[in-house]
UniProtKB/TrEMBL annotation, chains A, B:
SUPFAM superfamilies: lambda repressor-like DNA-binding domains, Periplasmic binding protein-like I. This is LacI family transcriptional regulator. It comes from Lientehia hominis. The keyword Transcription applies. Pfam families: LacI, Peripla_BP_3.
Length: 344, 344
DNA sequence: CTGAAAGCGCTAACAC
DNA sequence: GTGTTAGCGCTTTCAG
């Protein structure tokens, strides 16, 4: 390993001069600067970031903690976070907690022991369960992703799930659908609730009532893949019903579930969207790859990732002055082929 | 931040004693050990890993460098690598180079400056272009993922692409298909070549000749999504052909492309697999979510990830003694709904 | 068995 | 302007 010492020796100066050149603390003679710089180049010296971090008490490291990576939204979010960090001269540590609190805690610990400058965190559990527990462990600037809560100490960023639900309902109502079904995840999760309440409220505004048997809570327990829940849901909405009772539109609370719905409809040779319109939320990569391509409400993942990193940077900069804020990002209606006018 | 100093003060011992307790270098009296341990607990002291790393010249950090995260195989591989690292007490830095050599180089640089103990690297470019360039920059234990090459300095791990091609061909031939089409990526990439050569060679073994117009090189340039290439390919295999000329089976060189093929077939109301069988490679999450679910040749991503980390650990341990090895992992035939017996 | 001291590679006061 | 010195939090000789 080449160190400042080596450079200093070659250039015939002291290490602090080398340091000064590197940090552009202008108080260095142009001539010595040149000499040092050529020595740096000759030795191909690169400052060691561990030592820098120890001394400067800043690691230039951001820790990103997510549930998993097998899910498009997380993978994509991670990709954008990485990009933003890189751009700002930070590297990204990635940890996955698989929705296990123990793992989550040890990741937080580990990352803090690595002096991360900031943490972007998507909690394993609902905000209720956590507040007392994990919160005290965290002593670095943190942005909560997706599961936010107000503690005016940590920033948060999330998607406007309520509005997403409303947009979906409005769009389907605008296509003249009256008999509408939907899936929901476990209502314990805020974001799940929000999506559903938005959907229901907007239907009410539109003068549409959603029948109880047309709302299906999926067994969203991480043991059954989402799309299988979708297949089950489609079955529930179709089996043993008279034609009049069959919904003309199905809104799934996420795209994975929607893909399962579509799969089951294909299996039954039901035409999409001619007979039944299908819609999701998230705008994952899959939406364009299936037939028919899926109409959905998109999350602005890139913006959310960039904003998260910006918030972290701001928090790092301001320190105590920082005032925690929860940023809620706008959903976007993305119309593809899986939805159409109601024909009955 | 709580440091050893604080613990030492509280326990009434020296920092070196604290360090000894932490590192279990047994030469410490049971009684003082107890005192120190209770002080540690009381203060909730956690050793700082940056300082440890600087001193020990081991960061307990593995750097994973991949092209991107929007692709299922990479996301999944990353997930498994993270899990393996975690298990072994390592954290994972993640970097994405988006197939840009410049970015790749700066990631390697950056990670090395962070004293990563090892690197798992999926190159941005084909091995040819790189050897002179990047190789010299890398001075830590490295495992090449997916794009391997023999330089007996770095380990490598990849999927047996040739065999994957063979397995696909054998399976389709076994279903009695004779008129078979396939897609290929840019033949400059070894792994693309391997898949195709395996496919072609096995067809020859089976006494089947693949017509030139039934091999379509996709414009696999990262500007067009894979699945769009698949749609284009399907069109090319179908348009302006007499019924006799239309293939009864299409093998795509990856699952994303296969999904595009399926999409286009749906659009034309062609029954899968009754009229045309479709098959892919990789076994990405999508394969189960589309209709019909996709028969494919699976990569053992979990094994590959675990093996990569093991190789890194071995290399770290053995140092100069380490003998670089290229490990080639077995493909697995996964039969789903998109393929069936030839009916013509 | 334990404490004191040196040093990992770097930066920042403080002299000169 | 530049060199000297101290110190970030830790481990590891070396004495005792």
């Amino acid at each position: 390993m080449i160190t400042q010492k080596d450079v200093a020796r070659l250039a015939g100066v002291s290490v602090s001069t080398v340091s000064r050149v590197l940090n552009e603390s202008s108080l260095v003679d142009e001539k010595t600067k040149q000499i040092v710089e050529s020595a740096i180049k000759k030795l191909n010296y690169k400052p060691n970031l561990v030592a820098y971090g120890l001394r400067a008490k800043s690691s230039k490291l951001v820790g990103l903690i997510l549930p998993e990576m097998n899910h498009y939204t997380y993978a994509s979010f991670a990709q954008f976070v990485e990009g933003s960090c890189m751009e700002k001269g930070y590297s990204m540590l990635l940890g996955l907690h698989h929705n296990e609190c123990e793992l989550e805690k040890s990741l937080v610990d580990e990352f803090q022991r690595r002096n991360v400058d900031g943490l972007i965190l998507c909690l394993a559990i609902d905000e209720q369960n956590l507040s007392n527990n994990l919160m005290e462990y965290i002593s670095v600037p943190t942005v909560m992703y997706e599961r936010t809560f107000n503690n005016n100490r940590m920033g948060g960023i999330r998607f406007d799930n309520y509005k997403a639900g409303k947009m979906a309902a409005k769009y389907l109502a605008g296509l003249n659908h009256k008999n509408i079904a939907c899936t929901v995840g476990p209502m314990g999760m805020h974001y799940v609730q929000d999506r559903f309440f938005g959907f229901r409220d907007e239907l009410t505004v539109q003068g549409i009532e959603i029948k109880k048997q047309n709302v299906l809570e999926c067994d969203f327990n991480y043991r059954v893949p989402n799309f299988v829940s979708g297949e089950d849901a489609a079955r529930a909405f179709l089996d043993g019903r008279s034609d009049r009772d069959i919904p003309t539109a199905i809104w799934a609370h996420n795209d994975n579930v929607a893909s399962g719905v579509i799969k089951e409809l294909h299996r039954r040779k039901i035409k999409i969207p001619e007979e039944i319109s299908v819609m999701g939320v998230d705008n994952i990569g899959l939406t364009d790859m299936i037939y028919p391509s899926l109409t959905t409400i998109g999350q602005p993942l890139k913006n959310m990732a960039e904003k998260s990193v910006e918030m972290i940077m701001e928090e790092i900069e301001l320190g105590e002055e920082y005032k925690a804020d929860i940023v809620i990002m706008e959903p976007e209606l993305i119309i593809r082929e899986s939805t159409g006018k109601c024909r009955s």
